[in-house]
Structures are given as structure tokens and as C-alpha cells.
Amino acid sequence: xxxxxxxxxxxxxxxxxxxxxxxxxxxxxxxxxxxxxxxxxxxxxxxxxxxxxxxxxxxxxxxxxxxxxxxxxxxxxxxxxxxxxxxxxxxxxxxxxxxxxxxxxxxxxxxxxxxxxxxxxxxxxxxxxxxxxxxxxxxxxxxxxxxxxxxxxxxxxxxxxxxxxxxxxxxxxxxxxxxxxxxxxxxxxxxxxxxxxxxxxxxxxxxxxxxxxxxxxxxxxxxxxxxxxxxxxxxxxxxxxxxxxxxxxxxxxxxxxxxxxxxxxxxxxxxxxxxxxxxxxxxxxxxxxxxxxxxxxxxxxxxxxxxxxxxxxxxxxxxxxxxxxxxxxxxxxxxxxxxxxxxxxxxxxxxxxxxxxxxxxxxxxxxxxxxxxxxxxxxxxxxxxxxxx
Length: 389
Known about the structure:
The protein is an alpha/beta fold and 389 residues long. 40% of the residues lie in helices and 12% in strands. It has 16 helices and 11 strands. α2 (49-59) crosses α4 and α11 crosses α13.
């Protein structure tokens, strides 16, 4: 133990300052250049692609090809973690994913249900919040800090978690970089893509402990991102719309966005770095949901919107009878306005606004919502206000 009393060259004795929070910092990992604490290893449960697909199929409607691709990539990722934890040499590489598809097609929903099945920490971040290192804004290491916070500051759990990076298409390289106000540097676009390369590849990085004060460089831990699964998602709206606009001939107007696969060349021309795309080997194309699939989204999953609203009104003592015709009208409205699955909740909120408000006063009654009532409410609704990009 170090004696806090030190003698100076002049013979005078002075008291060395000792931080009050030293015991707490010692258990958190790395602080002010200290040695890294070795995390406790936990068992990894390797699920088969079929098991992962069956779980996703219960909650995610449609997108069969996407669910199969995600299930296979997750299985490979679990096998890689297991081999690395056993100390065995493996040739398996990281299977980061890139999900591409129109809004409301289920990109975030697939990732969230995957994290629940794998029982690992999961966080959703927005790519537009980050900037290149050295500029005002969040550094990319902060997204790992958010995952560390979700795991209860468990380094072992963090190093096998999932980070979902949304709006990845919004950080594409800009042609007019002078608009950023930083001369020729694209600090919010290409600079962020370059900073993400080391995270996606897998490297030991210093992560701030305090997410709300990420600029504070005093408290940090060392985290290895080699086993963190990154799932990037973007709409790439301009590319999808260009595909739809180019479709001509018989039956062209009935085709949906996401029907044809985007090529790597198109993504590079859009502004994505080829190095970034190379670190996202599993590229999954999601298509726009059909009317039949949107109806299933309303009724089929265990956490469907219809079941949710029925349970909410049941707590007020009211039975909700949503007729099929009313649900079909909601679906048709979403299809006409191209709102996707995400817009279904907004539409139902508008349709059931008065019912939800008066529910406590109608205890013991049964409320029937038919197609005529639904169409009356929807005629007053402006669909453009519901669109969520």
C-alpha cells in the first residue's frame, strides 16, 4: 500500500491527494490509464437458423427472405462467439448486416426481436447524431457506451450485444461538402463512415462510462467490439424511387418499392464508402408490405395492434369489437398513402380517439367499430401528416 505521506527534497512533509471514488472506479474497468479488468465469461447459447427464423416469424409478418438471411447471419455470429470463448482458432468472420427497405417494412422490428431471442443487450442509435472525431457532436464510441449502459455496465454482456444503427443512408457522402461549414471535410457524412470502420471490423476501443457526458475523457473502460453484432438500416429512398420510376409497361404501376435488389455499385454512387459496405457482408433487401401483409400486422402477431387496443380498453371495462371491414379500411388507407406498418398505429389512434377518451365512462359496454365508422373518421385525416420518414 502506498504511504500518502511523501517527503519533499527540502525535508517538508506533504499529504498526497487521494480520490474519494477510487474504490468504485477500480471495479468498473479502466480509469486514468489503469489496468483493464478481465470480464467474467458467460455461456453462449447457439441457436439454429430454424429456431431463430421461427421466433422472428411469430412477430414479423412477411419478409421471408430477410428473416432467413438474418437468422443465418445470427447463427454464424453465435458460432463465432462460442469458438472464440473456447479459445479455438476460427476462420469465421463477423456477419454484420445491412437492412435496406422502405419505411415501415420491419427493419427495426426484426432487429429488436432478434435481440430479445438472443438475450443480449440491444440499443438503437441514429447515425445522424454522430460526427467525425474532433468536432462538436457524438463520437462513434458513444454508441458502444450506450450499449454498455443497457447491459448494466457489464463488459462481458456488452461485448456480445447488438447495436442497431438506423438512418445509415443519411450519412452518405455529400457532393457539396462546403454546406457543412467545415471546408472540404464532410464531418457528418463521410467522416462518420470512416470512423465506423474500426467498430465494424472489431477493435479494442476506449468507451466513456458516462453517456450524458461523453466529452469527459477521465472515466472510461476498454471494450472489444470484435463480437458486437452491428445491424445497419436505411431506406435509401431515392434509389428505391428511381427503380419504381424506371419500371414501365404492363403491370408496372402495381409494383412495390424494394422489389428489386440494390447493387453495391448503386450504393457506392449513392455516397456509401466501399470499405463500409465491405464490412457489412450480409446485405438484406426488404420490400414494401402488401395489403394482405399489413392486415396480418394488425391481427396476427402476439403483440399486434388489435390485441393491444383491446387490452387497453378491457382495463377500463370496455369490450372492443373491431370488425374486419374496419381493419380493411385502415389497411387500404395505409396502402394508398404508402405509410407502411409504422403508420398503422397513427391511423388507429385517429380512428379510436373518441372511443379511448370515453372508455372510462362506458364501463361494461361493448363498442363496435365497423367500416362505415372507420371511413368517416379517415375522411377527416390528412395522410401526409402521418408519414414517418
